[in-house]
Amino acid sequence: MLWLLDRLILKEPLPVRECLRELRKIVKEKFDKQVYPMGGLMRSPPKRRDLEEFSKRVKLLKAAEKAFDKCDMEKGESLIDQAFSIK
Questions:
Q1: DSSP per residue, 48-64
Q2: Residue pair 9/21 in contact by the 8 Å Cβ criterion
């Protein structure tokens, strides 16, 4: 959700950007306080690095989709492998 809001903030008209920035702030605060059960309780707010990795995966998956549309299965599969190997 934060990744999507970051993208929208870049593209929308100025008055809408201000609203989106405020929404992003609220959402981030909520995520930062969220407790995730993973073998016990832990806090796990998303970091900038997490958003950047997600963005890379989205780009690779979109490129894979284009490759599959062109029937280039080898390239598409390679791009999918790359997307899921990002750490």
A1: HHHHHHHHHHHHHHHHH
A2: yes
| Cβ-contact 64, 79 below 8 angstroms | yes
pLDDT at residue 32 in the model = 83
Residue of 59, 37, 56, 40 whose CA lies nearest to 48: 56
Contact 36, 42 (CB under 8 A): yes
Count the helix, strand and coil residues of the chain and give each as a percent rounded to the nearest 5.
Answer: 75, 5, 20
**pLDDT category, 75, cuts 50, 70, 90?**
very high
3-state class (DSSP) for residue 37: strand
In total, the chain counts a number of residues equal to: 87
Tens of pLDDT, residue by residue over 38-66, are 655 555 677 788 888 888 999 999 999 99
5, two tokens: 């809001």
